[in-house]
Amino acid sequence: MMLVESLMMTVASIVPNFLMGIIAGGGIQGLMMLGSGFFRLPNDLPKLLWKYPVYYIAFHKYAYQGPYKNDYEGLYFSSDQTGGLDAIISGEEILRDEFQVEMGYSKWVDLGILLGMVVVYRVLFLVIIKTVEKVKPAISKFISVKPQQMTQVMENPTATAVHMS
Q: The organism sits in which domain of life (predicted)?
């Protein structure tokens, strides 16, 4: 939840309109979900866009794989897929072969990556806000046109009108 809030804060700091911020944030979330390996297994994702930048940037990948590792590592299951022989399949085999989870690191690394992403998004939000705070007045000053002042000059304000008869 903190990660989603951090991402949405960063998006909101970039997008000037409230409604457009919600739409843009929802779109980014949707793209991350599509490329995270939940709807399609990681090896089935197209390599060019979805696998390499989106799959590794999407925090959903780490949010899915951490609990999978927590639930399946260390467990053993009996299998009927071996043609009638009672075989034992480990949870690690299921994770690696069926779910295509990266087993090179632990569930705690997944959690650490998620917490690191929270920090990165919050720092990015701070940088964007401070940059806008400094740059926006300079841009406004550069773009704005000073209004012309109308001045009214009276030659002799204490004189009264001359009446001629």
A: Eukaryota
Determine the Cα–Cα distance for residues 158 and 141; give it in Å rounded to an integer. 40
Residue bearing tokens 């075989």: 87
Q: How many CB atoms lie within 10 A of CB 70?
A: 14
Who's near 12: CB < 8 A, 6+ residues apart? Answer: 18, 21, 25
Counting every residue written for the chain, the total comes to 165
Are the C-beta atoms of 32 and 59 separated by less than 8 Å? yes
pLDDT digits (tens, 9 = 90+) for 45-101: 888 888 888 888 999 999 999 999 999 999 998 877 666 667 888 999 999 998 999
Q: What is residue 42's DSSP assignment?
A: G
CB 60 within 8 A of CB 32: yes
Query: Distance between CA 101 and CA 38 in Å, rounded?
Result: 11
* pLDDT, tens only, 142-164: 787 777 777 766 677 676 666 66
Residue 85 to residues 79, 80, 81, 90, Cα–Cα distance (Å): 8, 7, 8, 16
* Entry pTM: 0.77
Assigned token pair, 92: 């690690």
